[in-house]
Design goal:
It contains eight helices and 28 strands. Strands 1, 3, 4, 5, 8, 9, 11, 13 and 14 form a nine-stranded mixed sheet that branches. A four-stranded antiparallel sheet has the order 18-19-22-21, with no helix packed on it. The chain has four domains: 132 residues, Immunoglobulins (Immunoglobulin-like, Sandwich), CATH 2.60.40.10; 84 residues, Immunoglobulins (Immunoglobulin-like); 87 residues, Immunoglobulin-like, CATH 2.60.40.10; 162 residues, no CATH class. By secondary structure, the protein is α+β, with helices and mostly antiparallel strands.
């Protein structure tokens, strides 16, 4: 088959040379990685008939290659190296013999020949000079510069294409350009300069030139130069005065990258109250005061460093502001004074109320104490009277009692005045209520008021009957022997009491210790006749001290407390 194809090609060339025909190649341009169509069309004349169509190519170095063949009897055949890459465009290659290269490569740049064999007219051929281009691929690599660095590369531009592209820079910067190319058909260009902050943001574009492009391809670029911030405090004008509302300062800062960290201070002082800081802004949320003056500092910071700016704020005091400030101060003084006065009045009222409360409480406690004291005194008197009414009715003890009473009366003669024809027992009716001696007995003071004595005698009329019944009951139930030894055993003088006259029980006359109103003259004589015995008893069992007659200490003695309690 291959021999047949070569034979047909040889025959075609021979006929063309014999006939004297010359074939001029047609130029055609295509791009790599795209589909390429190589046209070839032959019109049969008379009764000629196409027998075979063959495509071949010749490289620039003279190497020839068969691509594809379509024979009338043997059909289509693809030669090695082109299988799957080429095909006839038409289903009937004898009518339209155009060849399609499905994916064009840079190596497909060659001269292609279309051979058509006819019978009996002979062979014909058509040559096409195919040029393969590649659209350039370019890239730009910018460099971030910092202020203060030495002369260095600011950007690099690279491109690859077929034919080889050209690179250039579109900028007004002062710098140098260096171009390089490599064996892989890659071209590069670098731009070098000395970085300054004034160059930041300037245009530095790369242009790619290629014959396939009507206009150069532009790669836009902006020069980046980092430098520290340069803050400046703005916002202050000459109209600031005391009382102004809505005043504020702003920290304007350059620098690259843009500062995001701002710090506000007041030189030598802290920021005044009522000031709010938001980023690069400082504003007063209240009217201005004279104390807001000072040197305000703003510090801006970025990756290149921190820079501080200062500004002196002067706040003059206008007449209107002074008047408003004075009014405000006066109002503040009035408010403070009123509040203080109110507190003082409130404290005085509280003190008065507390004092009145304590006074009422003290009066109440004093009244209760007096009532308790009177109640205790009444109970003491009642207890004393009960003890006086409960003593023995032994006549010998009554005689000794009379002697004791007389002796006590003689000792207190400076305080007593006896009335005529009144007995010692009658003087007991005039005792002053509530008066007691050191032994707890009622004091023997006569009554100098006839009205009081008569009323006292009237009061004791009822008591006599009660005492009489008590004495009768005591004598009936008493088991104490009425002998002289009992007097010596009971060495404490019996208490005095006021009772009724003589009483009889079982034919015997009984007399109480306090029955002095019923004492007869004979009984008074008995008291006088026994004075020796009384004085002896007094010397044995009693002692005189400080104007009072007191019993001598004895283990069996029964003493009465001044308040009527038994000791």
């Amino acid at each position: 088959m291959a021999r047949l194809a070569w034979f047909g090609l040889f025959l075609t060339k021979l006929i063309a040379s014999v006939c004297g025909e010359s074939v001029q190649p047609v130029g055609l341009r295509t791009f790599a990685d795209e589909e390429t169509r190589l046209p070839c069309e032959f019109k049969v004349q008379d009764e000629s008939k196409v027998v075979q169509v063959t495509w071949s190519r010749e490289q620039q170095d003279g190497v020839k290659e068969q691509i594809i063949t379509n024979h009338m009897t043997e059909g289509i055949q693809e030669f090695p190296g082109f299988v799957g890459r080429v095909r006839f465009e038409s289903l009937d290659p004898f009518k339209d013999s155009a060849l399609l290269i499905l994916s064009t490569k840079e190596s497909d740049d060659a001269t292609y020949t279309c051979h058509i064999s006819t019978f009996p007219s002979g062979n014909f051929e058509k040559q096409i000079r195919l040029t393969v281009w590649r659209i350039p691929i370019a890239m730009l690599e910018p460099v971030i510069l910092e202020e203060g660095q030495t002369f260095r590369v600011a950007a690099t531009c690279r491109a690859v294409g077929l034919p080889r592209p050209e690179l250039s820079w579109d900028t007004d910067l002062l710098g140098q350009t260096q171009n390089k190319s490599s064996e892989d058909k890659v071209i590069s260009s670098t731009f070098l300069l000395h970085p300054l902050r004034s160059l930041n943001g300037r245009k530095l574009d790369c242009l790619v030139w290629h014959p396939a492009l009507e206009n150069p391809q532009r790669l836009s670029n902006t020069l980046v130069v980092h430098f520290p911030p340069n803050p400046e405090v703005v916002g202050y004008d000459q109209n600031w005065s005391v009382g102004r509302i809505g005043a504020g300062l702003r920290c304007e800062s350059g620098g690259n990258p843009r500062p995001q960290n701002f710090t506000w201070n007041r030189k030598g002082k802290s920021l005044p109250e009522g000031v709010t800081v938001e980023g690069n802004r400082l504003f007063f949320t209240r009217p201005l005061n004279k104390t807001d003056e000072g040197v305000y500092e703003c510090e801006a910071k970025n990756s290149m460093g921190a820079v501080r700016a200062e500004f002196n704020v002067d706040i003059p005091v206008t007449s209107e502001a002074a008047r408003l400030e004075a009014s405000f101060n006066n109002l503040l003084i009035i408010i403070v004074g009123g509040a203080t006065g109110g507190l003082v009045v409130l404290m005085v009222i509280i003190i008065i109320l507390v004092n009145r409360h304590h006074r009422r409480r003290n009066r109440k406690l004093k009244r209760e104490l007096t009532e308790r004291k009177e109640e205790i005194n009444n109970l003491s008197r009642q207890a004393s009277m009960r003890r006086l009414n409960s003593v023995s009715t032994d006549p010998r003890i009554q005689t000794e009692e009379c002697a004791l009473i007389r002796l006590d009366s003689a000792l207190k003669s400076s305080f007593l005045s006896l009335e005529g024809n009144s007995t010692l027992c009658d003087q007991r009716d005039g005792l002053r209520e509530g008066e007691y001696d050191s032994l707890g007995r009622p004091a023997i003071y006569p009554s100098y008021r006839s009205e009081r004595g008569s009323s006292r005698r009237k009061e004791t009329e009822v008591e006599r009957e009660e005492r009489r019944r008590r004495v009768e009951s005591f004598v009936t139930n008493s088991t104490v022997p009425l002998d002289s030894d009992s007097l010596h055993r009971d060495q404490s003088p019996p208490p005095l009491s006021i009772s009724s006259g003589p009483q009889r029980e079982g034919g015997m006359e009984k007399e109480g210790w306090g029955q002095r109103e019923g004492v007869t003259e004979g009984e008074e004589g008995d008291c006088t006749s026994n004075s020796y015995q009384i004085s002896e008893a007094l010397s044995n069992h009693f002692q005189y001290s400080n104007g009072f007659l007191r019993p001598k200490p004895h283990p069996n003695a029964i003493l009465l407390h001044p308040r009527g309690q038994i000791i």
